[in-house]
């Protein structure tokens, strides 16, 4: 509830993360990103730590594609590839 209340107070769209299946830590990272106008709500299944790193990389214009490619090569499951394709689209907007 804390992330929902804080999001309402901050004037952000809490519908992006106010869902029972999203953990507190993930809500926190999505809310922080939304404060910087970065929408990570499509990646709610990623770990909170990855969401934080993705947020910071996008915010600071860090080239993360080489790291993503390395992770994709190590974990080539269909679900993982689907998530990384979404990330490529997000960082290339």
Any overview of this molecule?
- With 93 residues, the protein is mainly α.
- 61% of the residues lie in helices and 0% in strands.
- Helix 2 packs parallel to helix 3.
- The mean pLDDT is 83.
Q: Briefly, what is this?
A:
The protein has 93 residues and is mainly α. The chain contains five helices and no strands.
SSE blueprint:
Blueprint: H1 2-10, H2 24-35, H3 48-59, H4 65-74, H5 78-91
Helix pairs in contact: 1-2, 2-3
**Helix share of residues?**
55-70%
Main sheet summary: none
Shape: globular
Termini Cα gap: 32 Å
β-strand number: 0
Q: SSE order, as H and E?
A: HHHHH
Q: What ranges have pLDDT less than 50 throughout 5 or more consecutive residues?
A: none
Number of helices: 5
On the 0-100 scale, what is the average pLDDT? 83
- Strand percent estimate: under 5%
Helix/strand/pairing category: mainly alpha
Descriptive keywords:
93 residues; mainly alpha; 5 helices; 0% strand; globular
């Amino acid at each position: 509830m804390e992330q929902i209340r804080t999001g309402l107070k901050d004037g952000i769209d809490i519908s992006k993360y106010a869902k029972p299946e999203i953990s507190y830590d993930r809500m926190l990272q999505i809310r922080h990103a939304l404060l910087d106008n970065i929408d990570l709500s499509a990646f709610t299944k990623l770990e909170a730590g990855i969401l934080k790193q993705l947020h910071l990389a996008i915010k600071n214009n860090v080239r993360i594609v080489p790291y993503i490619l390395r992770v994709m090569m190590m974990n080539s499951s269909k679900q993982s590839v689907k998530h990384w394709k979404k990330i490529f689209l997000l960082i290339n907007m």
